[in-house]
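agent> Task received from the user: take the single chain below, predict its 3D structure, and emit structure tokens. No templates, no multimer pairing.
agent> Plan: (1) validate residues, (2) run structure prediction, (3) serialize to tokens, (4) report one or two observations.
agent> Step 1 OK, no nonstandard residues flagged.
tool_call: predict_structure(input=
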Amino acid sequence: MNITANAPAIQVMKAIRFEQPDYLPFWDDFWGDFPKKWSQYMGLPITTRPDDYYGRCVCEQLGNESLFPSLSGKILKTEGKYNIIDDGWGRIVRQDRNGYFSETVGRILENYSDIEKIIPESADLDSRFTGFSEKVQDEKKRGVYVLAKIGGLYCRGQFVRGEEDLLMDMMLEKNFCNDFFDLMADHLTQMALQTLERGNLWDTGLLVCDDMANSKMPNFSPDIFEEFLLPRYKKMLSIVRKAGCSHVFFHSDGNIGPLLDLLIEAGFEGFNPLEPSCGLDLIKLREKYGKKIVLFGGVCNTQILPRGNKKEIEAHVRPLIELGRDGGVVIGQASIGDDVEPEAYDYYMSLVKKYGNYQG
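)
tool_result: status=success, residues=360
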């Protein structure tokens, strides 16, 4: 990777190796109108993004990993202000043309025997990666630590089956679930290998995004994870590592605390976003796991930042910055949305820049 010694990617690499970085790397995402509000507050052109301004350190890039990319986004018909769309995951969805969220109105996998209809299109289709290499190269030129991204077994599984049905299946239909998760694991493994190869991201690694928890607890018991997901994740991670993938990280919103030991057993070495409002405290996690895992996140985006109280923000953030002094931390949160004021976010970033300058 031809980047300067103080580039963000170098600092992330140092953190992952539990070395002291020159400065604390950060990883933030934004949604809604926050980028627009922020640029107006800062007096910058509307096209300026916060992560560009502060010098983003990490991003993830992915291809079209749907089961049927040739159908993905195909408008089947219109109903008033709605489009009826095939989303490529075996789902028919209804979406407001001016909206973001959609409603599922039909599935290919309505009955257990329908699994025979699911023959994913090849992971090596060039059409899955239109513009992918260009995006990766652009981020690399900026010195950003770029991760290959795929969805996870549960998250993508519920795309196909539906979350309520899949949860019931995991309790009652074990034979079906074994077949179904084998199918999903094979497809996602091939997508991971293609994404890593096409972006030449073997050294930076793979991010598996598998939202499987609410703010209180995982959506299923550790026993269910151990039965269905653990053996398949072990196999997936073994395959990508043998192919040359240096690092594998895991993302899930919510409280994944009860599953952490199993996820570590599966082979994941770092976790994001580790939300404190969900009971995941970086200081306590470091005390428990030491240098066994890299901590990505840790900043409260539901209570501390939205309140905008500078004393609270500093009291919350300073210990996390100190924790990162010895490596093993990339600070951030689940996301920054409209409930966070630009002034509060800018103050938070000023603390990261000031006290996270470990060479100063």
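agent> Step 4: summary for the user.
The first strand starts at residue 26 and ends at 27.
agent> Done.
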